[in-house]
Amino acid sequence: MSLFGIGRDGGRQKGHLGIWIADSESASFWVNVFNDLKNRGVKKSILIACYDNLTGFNKALETTYPRTENQLCIVRQIRNSLAFVNWKSRKAVAADLKSIYTAQHWTKRSINLKCLGKNTVRGILIY
Q1: pLDDT, tens only, 45-61
Q2: Which of 3, 17, 52, 68 has the fewest CB atoms within 10 Å of its CB?
Q3: How many CB atoms lie within 10 A of CB 78?
């Protein structure tokens, strides 16, 4: 497994943070990555970390950069949700999920989420 890190500084300049290689993902691997970032100059914090639910990532990030805002990748969340939907209904369910994730205000998201729940029978989405 290899990881290529890219980040932006306060002046919005993009920069290469490093390349890390390991046999597998683990909390100790991520702790090493984040400690290496600190040694390379990322001292204070990481504003937002968007990731794919990687093994040990969240715990290592909280240990090294406790004020970081964690966010799971929305694309991954939608793909994982669609794995439980029958093939014929995926397009409609994906459109409904998109209306939730792309809504500009939390009240609209909440309304869209409630509408998604109305298309169910005994907890199973019906489209």
Answers
A1: 777 777 777 778 888 88
A2: 52
A3: 15
Q: Which helix (H) or strand (E) holds 117?
A: helix 106-118
Question: Could you tell me which residues come within 8 angstroms of residue 38 by beta carbon, excluding any fewer than 6 positions away?
Answer: 64
Contact at 8 Å (CB) between 55 and 25? yes
Query: Cβ-count burial of 5 within 10 angstroms (0-12 exposed, 13-18 middle, 19+ buried)?
Result: middle
Q: Would you list the domain boundaries of the chain?
A: 2-72, 74-125
- Find all residues with CB under 8 Å of 28, minimum gap 6, and list them: 56, 60
Q: State the chain's mean pLDDT as an integer.
A: 78
Joined together, the tokens standing for residue 72 give 């799971």
Phi, psi of 10 (to 5 degrees): -60, -25
